[in-house]
């Protein structure tokens, strides 16, 4: 009669196996199989990573820039306050890199730089899928006029880890209304896109402005008694386009205000930024009326210089044109 097997200590078999495996290193072949089993599903994320590759590149580039600035700040003992004069060397370097990128990628040029006032003003622009055009403009303003343009950006951008130092250096922030008013009263420029992420996500190659009832920027201009400078960039949607515009994505955005649609592109199309004549301060109009005037001014620039719907091939061929044209 076979002897009965006595129960062992709970977990004893597992401990015995693990000790044996450490000694013989034979059972660890199963570890490789397990790792492969776990990692394989991660390949499902590859399409998502590719869809957001432009944003990923921008983020990595921004983090690298912040790291370089941090090292330079420590080596040269730059003051904490980025408004100090020594920080202009940092801004000059950033301006040169960004301007060169604009020239190489899109043959970037600005038409109407003379419309940028010497004093304060609000630069109001159409928000593309990617706002590289505005970054190129800010770099050109600093290079040509030596002026810093403050930029009002979405709160999600300033919360991303690793970007703060670079954003502080070029004065990109989710400013409050009081801070915006102070910036303008000190004689500075402020740039913003009233359409924001809604326009960036859901506008298309027809370049329709999606401002809704936003009049806060106009009220700010009235309170600060400053002009509004309209701006529009030709072929912006041909360089970078957002995808995934569905009723569900629109619903998600409207209810979360956090959604950023995947973007594709990087096509080396011609970018020309047109700056219109400033809309002067007028105490006799309302914020709603001023907002409508600003919208009409940008639409006028769009209708004058942008063929709609946009076409990527045509925009590529426009890189070979020596002079800009009305349509």
From TrEMBL:
Pfam families linked: Acyltransferase (PF01553)
TM annotation in the entry: 49-72
Record CDD domains: LPLAT_MGAT-like
Sample GO molecular function, one term: acyltransferase activity
Transmembrane among keywords: yes
Coiled-coil intervals, chain numbering: none
Superkingdom, natural source: Eukaryota
Keywords: Membrane, Transmembrane, Transmembrane helix
InterPro entries named in the record: Plipid/glycerol_acylTrfase
Start and end residues of each Phospholipid/glycerol acyltransferase domain: 109-231
Protein name from the UniProt record: Phospholipid/glycerol acyltransferase domain-containing protein
């Amino acid at each position: 009669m076979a002897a009965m097997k006595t129960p062992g200590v709970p977990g004893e078999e597992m401990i015995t196996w693990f000790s044996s495996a450490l000694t013989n290193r034979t059972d660890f072949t199963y570890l490789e199989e397990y790792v492969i089993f776990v990692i394989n599903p991660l390949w499902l994320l590859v399409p998502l990573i590719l869809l957001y590759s432009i944003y990923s590149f921008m983020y990595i580039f921004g983090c690298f820039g912040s790291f370089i600035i941090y090292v330079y700040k420590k080596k040269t003992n730059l003051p904490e306050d980025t408004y100090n004069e020594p920080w202009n060397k940092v801004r000059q370097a950033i301006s040169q890199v960004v301007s060169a990128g604009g020239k190489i990628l899109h043959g970037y040029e600005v038409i109407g730089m003379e419309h940028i006032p010497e004093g304060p003003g609000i630069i109001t622009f159409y928000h593309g899928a990617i706002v590289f055009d505005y970054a190129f403009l800010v770099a050109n303003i600093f290079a040509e006029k030596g002026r810093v343009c403050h930029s009002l950006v979405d709160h999600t951008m300033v919360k991303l880890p690793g970007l703060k130092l670079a954003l502080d250096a070029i004065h990109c922030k989710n400013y409050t209304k009081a801070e915006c008013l102070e910036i303008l009263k000190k004689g500075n420029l402020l740039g913003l896109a009233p359409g924001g992420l809604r326009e960036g996500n859901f506008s298309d190659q027809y370049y329709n402005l999606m401002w809704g009832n936003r009049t806060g920027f106009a009220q700010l201009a009235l309170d600060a008694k400053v002009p509004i400078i309209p701006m529009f960039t030709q072929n912006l949607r041909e360089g970078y386009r957002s995808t995934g515009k569905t009723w569900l994505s629109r619903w998600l955005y409207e209810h979360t205000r956090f959604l950023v649609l995947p973007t594709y592109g990087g096509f080396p199309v011609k970018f020309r930024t047109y700056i219109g004549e400033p809309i002067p301060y007028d105490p006799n109009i309302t914020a709603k009326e001023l907002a409508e005037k600003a919208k009409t001014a940008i639409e006028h620039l769009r209708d004058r210089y942008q063929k709609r719907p946009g076409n990527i091939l045509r925009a590529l061929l426009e890189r070979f044109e020596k002079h800009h044209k009305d349509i």
